[in-house]
Amino acid sequence: MSSFASIFNSLIAYLRSLLFSKHLEICVVGLQSAGKTSLVNLLSSGQFADEMVPTVGFNMRKVRSGNTTIKVWDIGGQPRFRNMWERYCRGVSAIVFVVETPPSSDPWAIATEELHALIERPHLAGVPLLVLATKNDIKGAVGVDQVIRTMRLDTISNREVSCYSISSKNQVNIDVTLRWLVARSPAGSR
Question: Which fold has domain 22-182?
Answer without folding.
Answer: Rossmann fold (3.40.50)
